[in-house]
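Re: Re: C-alpha cell formats

Sure, here are both.
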Amino acid sequence: MTDEQINKIVKSLEGINKSLSSLAEDTKANKELKIEINSKMNNLEKSIERLSKDPFGLNERN
C-alpha cells in the first residue's frame, strides 16, 4: 500500500468515526428527550385524573 492509499483510508476512518460519534450523541439526546416527554405525559395524566375527580379543587381544601 502506498502512503496516499493509507492516508485515504485514515481519512475515511476518521470520517466514519465522526459520523458514529454524532449518531451516538443524537441517540443519547433522543433517549433523554423521550424520558422527559414520558415523565411529562405521566404528570399530565395524573393532573387530568385529579381534575376529573375534583374539577374545582373543592376536595383539596378540606
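Second one below.
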Amino acid sequence: MADQTLLLERTARWRGTSGPDGWADAWERALTELTPYAQLGGEEGDYLPKRWTEGAAGLALAYYLLAADSDTPVAEVLADDVRALATADPDTRSTQPVVARIDGLVERAGHRLDDVSDPVAACWLDLREDCSPTAYGVYDDMALATGPWRWGHDKAASLAFVLEHTAAASSR
C-alpha cells in the first residue's frame, strides 16, 4: 500500500499546478483509486514505482479526456471505457492504437498536442514519448543487448499496468 503523499509527490510533474475543469477531479479520482495498491518502494526511477506513477498520470488523463469527450462528470466515467482506451493491439501488443486514440481525445477536448504550457497536453506529451533507444541515437548492438531499454510508447502501457493491478479496473 502506498502513501498518498508519496504518490502525490511522484506524480506532481504530470498534474501541473492548474488545469481545465475536470482535471483536478480526474487526478483526485485516479489517486484515490490507486493509493491502496501502488507499490512505490525503492527509488523513483525503479521499474515498479515508475510504472505506478506513469499509470496514475495515464489514469487521470483517461478520466479527464473520457469525461470531456462524453460531456459527463469525471466520477461517471466507466471503467470499461478506460479499459477500451488503454487496450493495446491484441496481436502485436503495440501501444500505437492507444496513442492514436488518446491523441484524438486530446485534440477533441480542445488541447493542442504541441502546447507544453497546457497541463493536459504536457502530461500526454510525456506519456506518449517514444522510449526506444534509437529515438535517443543509441544504435550500438552491445548497448542494445545489455541495456534495460524501454521500447516504443512504453510509458503509455503503464495505464494498462495499473488497471491490471487495481480495483480501478472494476470501479464504476
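Residues 4-169 form one domain. The CA atoms of residues 88 and 142 lie 29 Å apart.
- S.
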